[in-house]
Amino acid sequence: MCRLAVERFAKASDNALILTDINLSTLETTVAKLNLLASRISTKQLDLFDRTALLEAIKGAALVVLGAGHYTRTSEPVLTACLEAKVPYLDFDDDVESTQAALALHERAKAEGVPCYIGCGASPGMSNVMVLDVTAELDTVDSIDICWSVSDGKGKTSKAVLDT
Predict the structure, then answer these.
(1) The pTM is what?
(2) Which CATH architecture has domain 2-163?
(3) What is the mean pLDDT of the segment spanning 24-34?
(4) What is the rounded average pLDDT of the residues 110-125?
(5) Which terminus of the chain is more exposed, N or C, with fewer CB under 10 A?
(6) Hey, how many other C-beta atoms are within 10 angstroms of the C-beta on 121?
């Protein structure tokens, strides 16, 4: 999800992108796959649990996009740092507890004038948009079930996915 988001952000603007992760080799692989867009992308090692380093990394950013899970651990420190630094925030959070905790900060974000976009990944996020599109085409809706299968990208579905 994040690699695709980075690609879309890079194609949609001429702004420089700074990608951070605790594992630089992961970032370098992502940047290498972006070919021509890579010239506007820089990488930086960051432990997002180091509050001082996190605040320094996001200082002056136009937008911080959190793609590092597990969101139950990563959402709170990044979101609160963004609120403190007055930097807009977007995440792909798909964990119920951390999504609810982030949404509970709505009034603070609103009061501080910091836009926060929570749960913008597949679910919640795209699944919500698709449901809205479908319901607009129907006269009445009693319920909607959303189901999907996830594979390793090679056409094989893992046993863990099938068991859940």
Answers:
(1) 0.77
(2) 3-Layer(aba) Sandwich (3.40)
(3) 85
(4) 87
(5) C
(6) 19
Q: How far apart are CA 111 and CA 85, in angstroms?
A: 14
DSSP H helices in 34-125: 51-58, 71-85, 96-103, 106-112
Angle at CA of residue 63, ends 59 and 69, nearest 5°? 95
> Cis link prior to 124 (omega < 30° from 0)?
yes
Residue 35 and residue 105: Cα distance in Å, rounded? 38
User: What is the distance between the alpha carbons of residues 124 and 142, in angstroms, rounded to a whole number?
Assistant: 20
Output the CA–CA distances (angstroms, integers) from residue 7 to 54, 152, 163, in the order listed.
23, 20, 33
pLDDT in the model for residue 46:
97
Name the phi and psi angles at 15, rounded to 5.
Answer: -70, 150
Q: How far apart are CA 127 and CA 11, in angstroms?
A: 24
Give the C-alpha separation, 42 to 143, whole Å: 45
Q: Do 77 and 51 contact (CB within 8 A), yes or no?
A: yes
